[in-house]
Sequence to fold (816 residues):
Amino acid sequence: MFSSADQNRALELLEAIHFFSVKNWSPATSTNYSVRSTQPGKFIISRSGVDKSRFAYEDLILIDGAGQVDPAFAAPGVKSSAETDIHTALYRLYPEVECVLHTHSVAGTVLSMTPERELRFTGLEILKGLEGNATHELTEVLPIVPNSQDMGEILSALDGRLAGAHGFLIKGHGLYTWGKDIASAKRHIETYEFLFECELKLRS
Amino acid sequence: MFSSADQNRALELLEAIHFFSVKNWSPATSTNYSVRSTQPGKFIISRSGVDKSRFAYEDLILIDGAGQVDPAFAAPGVKSSAETDIHTALYRLYPEVECVLHTHSVAGTVLSMTPERELRFTGLEILKGLEGNATHELTEVLPIVPNSQDMGEILSALDGRLAGAHGFLIKGHGLYTWGKDIASAKRHIETYEFLFECELKLRS
Amino acid sequence: MFSSADQNRALELLEAIHFFSVKNWSPATSTNYSVRSTQPGKFIISRSGVDKSRFAYEDLILIDGAGQVDPAFAAPGVKSSAETDIHTALYRLYPEVECVLHTHSVAGTVLSMTPERELRFTGLEILKGLEGNATHELTEVLPIVPNSQDMGEILSALDGRLAGAHGFLIKGHGLYTWGKDIASAKRHIETYEFLFECELKLRS
Amino acid sequence: MFSSADQNRALELLEAIHFFSVKNWSPATSTNYSVRSTQPGKFIISRSGVDKSRFAYEDLILIDGAGQVDPAFAAPGVKSSAETDIHTALYRLYPEVECVLHTHSVAGTVLSMTPERELRFTGLEILKGLEGNATHELTEVLPIVPNSQDMGEILSALDGRLAGAHGFLIKGHGLYTWGKDIASAKRHIETYEFLFECELKLRS
Fold:
């Protein structure tokens, strides 16, 4: 049902979703994913409540910037992700961003429970995986915000904390990151998940 | 040999069994799985003694509520799981439950050896993976009961301890959980196994 | 080149070898595997020096009880495993044993470095995976012997230490176990590797 | 575009690259790999910036000893790896070496952050996976050098430190190793990564 121009994006997003599932970064029905549609103001997003190990092309739907499901994709039980508002807010904040991804790994969840307000990573080559980083000799800050079932509260908690960040952690919940295209956003996920696994081992 | 109405259930259960095997949650011949048959009072269950990495459609059999193998499935060496009584007891206790699953992971086994009588999980988004939980702001209690080769003893130990629980751990043995359909029960397994891995890392 | 009666055994052994490789229990060219041939006094065994992630049917060869490669399998560079003497000694010791398997996992290697002379496992349901164990309420002893490049030394060190054991660890080197058929021996490998992972986490 | 003599090498290298990706040793666009071409003074190498989980035959290119991309492989955006100079320097240093591999695992990264100037491994059977080692009774030294975005600095830091070594670690960055052919170099990667995982667990 996607336009032929959107089909390629949907398929590339689907491949990333399968990759994350195999890596154990999307247990059960957790996590959600989106990419801008070629139609301005529209987004391709994972629908709510799907087992990510069985996620299929048909589980991607088209929404507008208010999170409304496009009539062509409306069907009984089809809802956009409960966290749609975070995706659309990030697209408004970052016009150059084409893709927003949210994973939910054991390592990210465990690290997010630290009493600190942010994670700081420094001196690791993998930091070059984050857009614009040309060296390992820098400190990357990943903000941690409290979890809430009210997306507005999460967005308020992010206020003023995203400057210079490539993503954020929601406490006990997981990682959001984004990129100028699907490949960049996927690279950010892999980079952060690698950093999380290193950090967990370095702390223990 | 299943009725055509039962074939779909058996195939969906088989897919979940393969998923758990790939995740390393069913070493060797451990673990067992069942789903209600479309025939009232009958159950589709994994037969005893099968290597779960080679488990096949033919290893699912039909039993009645007393654990007797349906004559159509009887063959030399075909027995229902040694833990069949736990499955049938749970179906009697929960008429709305359609599927009972038992995994045996390293993380679950290790945590079950705690001297505490139960595990308590709180504040994690993944808790919403358990049926009826609409928020992370709750405490989920997972009872731990002593292991026994006598299923009656395990069932007695569960007496009065399942109120509000979505599953239980048998000490040194693994996890039981259930759901209103196969998808729900599988989601519960993934949720608990994720919680176990987080908890193990948070404790170390 | 195997007799048709031997082909099934070779293929079943090959499937187990691939399973162990995927589990990360046979890094690089480590580990070796054998099964009795249907010809008395002959054995099907993995040849030496093969990358286990690329191990193929053609890498299984026929040897006699002295470790000599059957002429039909002799070719330049084809040697039986350096540890062939351990396999043939175990077959002499246990006439009822049909299959000998040796894996080399991280968990087994790390645990084998303990200063203790043996590992003891108790109270875990998975112990029933070892032949003849009908309950978790027992203590299973796994001897650890010093490593040597001289198989005679390893065999001497085992003298008098295998009574009641289902396998042994060579220090810094890995696990040997066996069974009445390939399925039993594979179940023993999975049981021990599960025990190793539990034990490592219980110790930390 | 490779000569038919080079195609087999490229395909074997590709298989190793896929193997490392599945093992989680090449997150995102990290890592690089090369093998000598059958044309003297030429090398087949992974091009820069490719997601290693999607690495394809077309991502292998031909370069000369100065790191210049062969005109037949030049296309917009095609660059040799940023670390090409390390590969070509190793080929100059070791005329018998046919293959140079660089992985970037969590375990290697974490261990490389030790304040020590080198890792020492001793007494483990897996050490025989490193070319020329006939026993576990030796000590293998793996130098650690500081990371830099200037390959010349890394090469200078290696000066005089490679005697007797089969590889080296760059701090916070990962492992380089090599071999007389692709199979040997791959075996070295697997050997070191196994050693890293053992060492991490032995230290904790």
